[in-house]
Amino acid sequence: MEKTVKIGDKLVGHGRAMYVIAEVGINHNGSVDTAKRLIDAAIFSGCDSVKFQKRTIEVVYPPEELAKPRETPFGTTNGEMKRRLEFGYREYAEIDRYCRERGIHWFASCWDEASVDFIERFGTPCYKIASACLTDDNLLRYHRQKGRPIILSTGMSGMAQIEHAVEILGQEDLILLHCTSTYPSKPAELNLRGIFSLRQRFPGIPVGYSGHEIGLATSVATAALGACVVERHITLDRAMWGSDQAASVEPHGFSRMVRDIRIVEQAMGDGNIRILESELPIMEKLRRVK
């Protein structure tokens, strides 16, 4: 029996309203003001939470990766860009204050143990573990020690790797997100039936979807496939500079996606075939043989 997981004041799981996450990630481009505008857009769209990313740059990336040439608005190396995109305590304290003031959950995907400790200072309602970190057993264990619900994306992973990660984390207070880690993903790469596969393999764990595709239809479709969470990157403008912008959704698109998900949820019904009250006058008018 699939359980529910409580994130803040909301229960997430089968039979509950889909929990919608707007991933800000690094689409703020190092600006707290831009981050606030993205938070406002997520709230306007009807999202349940916003998500950020936190890394200790020197731990996550080797020196040779940071030294690679890369022309960006922040400098000429990969390291200069990575450091400028990374928010510190002052920025996250302001994000925390703003989200509390605006009444929306926020949390982060932490790519190393020090980043988990950093985000823990803010008492976020859960943690997200990125697909790239699914095979980092020590990081999984470190997250679990904090005693908060965990959302785990499963991109770049086979079932055996996912099974191992679940064994490390345990099934309590865990949500799995089916995911394809290409940016942007082609429709043929999405394999949305993977949602069925994860629900069948882990019947006690809520399963959702994290998408990086262009467009909204496939994310909306997951509401009819039993997904209990949907996560998409949010951006102010897909033409903005940044590695994730092209695979993101602009505010008006996010509003349409949330609206259509809620419509699909209503339309799913309970599956019991019966004559509706609203059908009776039509039946009387059109059916010759009762």
Q: Give the structural class.
A: alpha/beta
CATH architecture: Alpha-Beta Barrel
* CATH fold type: TIM Barrel
Alpha carbon gyration radius: 21 Å
Mean pLDDT across the residues is 96
- The rough form would be described as globular
- Under CATH, the homologous superfamily reads Aldolase class I
Using the coordinates above, name the CATH class.
Alpha Beta
Helix segment count?
Answer: 12
How many strand segments? 12
Q: Regions with pLDDT < 50 over 5+ consecutive residues?
A: none
Number of spatially distinct domains: 1
Which band does the percent of strand residues land in? 15-25%
- The order of strands across the largest sheet is 7-4-3-12-11-10-9-8
Portion of residues in helices? Answer: 25-40%
Q: Tell me about the largest β-sheet.
A: 8 strands, parallel
Task: Summarize the structure in words.
This protein has 290 residues and is α/β, with parallel strands linked by helices. The protein has a single domain (5-286), classed as TIM Barrel (Alpha-Beta Barrel), CATH 3.20.20.70. 38% of the residues lie in helices and 19% in strands. It is built from 12 helices and 12 strands. It has helices spanning 32-45, 57-60, 63-66, 78-85, 89-102, 113-120, 137-145, 159-169, 194-201, 217-221, 251-268, 280-286, and strands at 5-7, 10-12, 19-25, 49-54, 69-72, 75-77, 105-110, 127-129, 150-153, 174-179, 207-211, 229-233. Strands 7-4-3-12-11-10-9-8 form an 8-stranded parallel β-sheet. It has a two-stranded antiparallel sheet with strand order 1-2. It has a two-stranded antiparallel ribbon with strand order 5-6. Strand 8 (127-129), helix 7 and strand 9 form a beta-alpha-beta unit. It is globular, with a radius of gyration of 21 Å. The protein starts with a strand and ends with a helix. The model has no long low-confidence stretch (mean pLDDT 96).
